[in-house]
Amino acid sequence: MIVKNEVHHIEEAIKSLSFCDEIVVVDGFSTDGTFEKLKSYSQVTVLQHKFKNFTDQRNFSLKQATKDWILILDADERITKALREEILATITNPKGVNGFMIRRQHYFDKKPIRFSGFQTDTTYRLFKNGCVIYDENKLVHEMPIVSGKSAILKEKMPHYSIASTKNFKAKMEQYAFLKAKELHQKGKKTTLWHLTIRPFFKFFFNYFIRLGILDGKEGFQICYLQAYGVYYRYKQLQKINLST
Questions:
Q1: Which tens digit of pLDDT belongs to each residue from 184-200?
Q2: What is the pTM of this model?
Q3: How many CB atoms lie within 10 A of CB 113?
Q4: Which residue of 114, 146, 178, 220 pairs with 139 in a disulfide if CB–CB is 3.0 to 4.6 A?
Q5: CB atoms inside a 10 Å sphere around CB 217
Q6: What is the sign of the dihedral through the CA atoms of 143, 161, 73 and 6?
Q7: Are 76 and 157 in contact (CB under 8 A)?
């Protein structure tokens, strides 16, 4: 696990990993008591490493794992009993597969989000040790490079990704800033289209085409903030380009 300021999530996350042979958590120098809470768990190896970006933190954490298989979990994700059983059965007989993706069920507070662009969300979370490294060119929405075959597990993983609109907005801004840095490194520029049409299209696509409208007021808030994240990304890119 990589964490920063996740004191409200960490206990349930650690509980859901009780079946693991080792639990390694890399803390990005939390200021809310997360590190201190982690230190109280005898079964957890906790390290602190300065957060540069998600990819750097992921790759550092991978180097700490000593067992044959690595399961990656974010603090706001949970491993259910059914998923745990599938994971254990899978690593017993992986059938030559080195990397597994897991589908996620998102929640806004305690309400399940069925649409809003999240219905097809799948992420790599289970790897054979030594067969994965994260692409250093991706600073956010990090992308693993897996040696060998990949597959998708059947069971879904609960993802309590949105505690409130304030929380989700902060996430969108963090991701957007890192994405802006990534785009700057690629020499990209901000245009009027990026600040107007692209955010509008993001909202329209997720709210109407991907049926965010069916998620009620939470769906509207999610789709609006996703569009805001696109706007904020290119506004930050504009600022970075002007300052360099």
A1: 999 999 999 999 999 99
A2: 0.93
A3: 23
A4: 178
A5: 10
A6: positive
A7: no
